[in-house]
Amino acid sequence: MKRKQTTRSFVYMTIGLALLFYALPRVPHVTWSLEGAFTCVWLAFAMLIISSNLYYLIGVDKEKQDRKKKRNEWLERGLREFKRGYFSEAKREMRQKKQRRFMS
Fold this sequence. Notes:
Layout: H1 2-23, H2 34-58, H3 60-103
């Protein structure tokens, strides 16, 4: 499944680059008119498509997920150690209170 998504992303990026290189010489010049606005918007969308597929291919999402997974494991381990230490201290205090009650 992962390979299929990678192939799809590569094909979409290639098509986006082909469209960009084919259309770039043919788009109107950027001016303060409707044609210029269309050129800017069209180029922005083309760059968005290319960059989003490149972002996926480079694997930045995977790196972020790995970092998030490691951070969550670290937090869970710390929480388990904290609970273990906290409850052992709480048990010790309860024993001491019981001993005090019986001693007095």
